[in-house]
């Protein structure tokens, strides 16, 4: 079986001019990092990348919303990222693969997000919109990943898991989204929630 290849950017290139710790919804900052991913992104085998903190794995991270409710779910034991198993989350997504598109850029990231959503949950008419960017070097998993965060609007608060061993959950108000068991990226998202708007 052919090894999975994923999109990465060297940390030194990504943070050469500006560093980010936490979540930001500033459009100019998202555009800055997207330009760097477009210029310096490359696909490498996933196995070595998972052990290399000099590379940032690029992850489109979709927060599924219906009105003021968010899809909150617990990651199952079959997830590939051991550090996230059993943790609650408000973000669906994953790595970007060469099969998602030939050219690195915003269309590639959205295609990867749509693929991941389709693999994990059945949603009613998902509509992704860019929201911001996210980095958490204080977390062991976060040190190897960099997130492009999307709000994924859906027509109704229903979501059927297609991978029950990896994802199961329900729509709920943000305040009820997992508490202390939330993964670090989701804690940063929930903390920024009042700035989201509709």
Structural account:
There is one protein chain. With 198 residues, this protein is α+β, with helices and mostly antiparallel strands. The protein has one domain: Nucleoside Triphosphate Pyrophosphohydrolase, CATH 3.90.79. 23% of the residues lie in helices and 33% in strands. The strands form two sheets. Strands 1, 2, 3, 4, 5, 6, 7, 9, 10 and 12 form a ten-stranded mixed beta sheet that branches. A two-stranded antiparallel ribbon has the order 8-11. Strand 4 and strand 5 form a beta hairpin. It is globular, with a radius of gyration of 16 Å.
What's the architecture, going by CATH? Answer: Alpha-Beta Complex
Approximate shape = globular
Structural class: alpha+beta
Can you give the mean pLDDT?
A: 88
By CATH, the superfamily comes out as: Nucleoside Triphosphate Pyrophosphohydrolase
Number of self-contained structural domains: 1
- What's the count of strands? 12
Percent range for β-strand residues: 25-35%
**CATH topology descriptor:** Nucleoside Triphosphate Pyrophosphohydrolase
What is the alpha-carbon Rg in Å?
A: 16 Å
Terminal residue distance: 44 Å
Number of helices: 5
Model regions low in confidence, pLDDT < 50 over at least 5 residues: none
Query: How many strands, what sense, and barrel or not for the largest sheet?
Result: 10 strands, mixed
Text of the CATH class: Alpha Beta
Fraction in helix: 10-25%
H/E element order: EHEHEHEEEEHEEEEEH
